[in-house]
Write a structure and sequence with these properties.
Distance between the termini: 33 Å
CATH architecture of the largest domain: 2-Layer Sandwich
Structural class: alpha/beta
Bound molecules: adenosine-5'-triphosphate, magnesium ion
CATH topology of the largest domain: Nucleotidyltransferase, domain 5
Largest sheet: 7 strands, mixed
Order of helices and strands: HEHEHEEEHEHEHHHHEEEHEHEHEHEEH
Amino acid sequence: MKIILKHPQWDVFDSEQRFQVLVAGRRFGKTYLALVELCQAASVRGRLVWYVGPTYKQAKRIAWKPLKEMTRPYWAAKPNETDLRIELIWGSTICVRGADNYESLRGDGLDFLVLDEYASMAPEAWTEVLRPALADKQGRALFIGTPHGRNHFFDLYEAAQERPNWATFQYTTEQGGNVPSEELESATHEMDERTYRQEFEARFETLGVGRAYYAFDRIHNVKNYRFNPQLGLRWSLDFNMNPLCSVLTQVSHGVVAVLEELILPDSNTLAACEEFLSRTEKWNAGSLLHVQVYGDSTGEQRHTSASRTDWQIVKEFFGRYRDRFNVTYRVPSTNPMVKDRVNCVNAMLRNHAGQHRVMIHEHCKHLIRDLEQVCWKTDPHGNSLVELDKSDPMRSHVSDALGYYIAREFPMRPQMGERSGPAIF
Ligand SMILES: Nc1ncnc2c1ncn2[C@@H]1O[C@H](COP(=O)(O)OP(=O)(O)OP(=O)(O)O)[C@@H](O)[C@H]1O
Ligand SMILES: [Mg+2]
């Protein structure tokens, strides 16, 4: 496999400092560089090197396959698919790890470590477990990420500028050379300025008081659209069970109208389907109603009834009503990252040009409250984490449901390649 680094990637690769911090925009080529650095570090005999992502699942999805491809000619044995470990013929080992369960990462002495998407990780993974793991071998570390407000990644980046043995780098997406300028130009129109600066110019923005959907305001995003029989209906579900939330929307000329919210306390998927049936009766007079279904892809694995997954229940339900609904499913195989999903919703609520492309009926009180109140979780120092605060059981589920739909139909550009998979059915 031929590997050619772009100029800014080379600058990082060339640096000889023990600790490096790379802050770069989306699609800059951060993960690609991380994998090349790992292979380089493992090219010396007897090394142990780790790729660490924010979660095991994410790390596996992003890094495992390309790492196997890059190292295939040098495998000592078949890679271990459970432990995500590649042994090389000269006795070095490359492992893929997730920082979500960082306590379990104790015990190994490392020569080199990449922390990819560090802004989305619990900072204790570094301070309590990974930093000590570098001590005995004087191992090196590379921190990589796109900013998320002024959280622990910002603190690290600032502190690194003052410390010996540390190097810092900051690049925009454009400097990475992987995204055509027309694509970036189009993103400037679709996103609000602050998100654009953060995601594509890699700037550490102040994210206000932590409100996730800061682009929402009642004056511009609450409007009472009626059902339009010329248009199909879109139903998007979150499978939290208490409450079980979903939204009914229609879209016309790129504007999403949220007509109704379905909030069912202590419920199940079949009950949500029955509620859907009763709510849509008024729109379904005699003719076939076109419905596109969206939602949480994990509903394909999770069982809220003993024997069937949530999506099986939905499919069986619509199977019984073929005479009333013509259904297409638009559920991806993996959910987008929470941060991307929230960015997409904000971009639709208000974009850079000041356009408001989501209109919510005033009777969707839970959704409106969510958009006003849902916050990012914070760490004990008040830094924003890349996780929504779910401490109030009533909050976030209905806005999650809206987000699944928006992220699927109005994704952030440039497209985040590996982040949302193909449709599952
Ligand atoms: N030096 C390079 N040569 C060829 N392709 C590259 C190079 N660097 C990056 N790419 C390609 O550019 C795309 C984006 O790279 P990568 O996934 O590493 O970016 P990223 O900054 O990690 O993105 P994200 O913000 O989505 O995590 C990928 O398709 C990758 O294969
Ligand atoms: Mg990446």
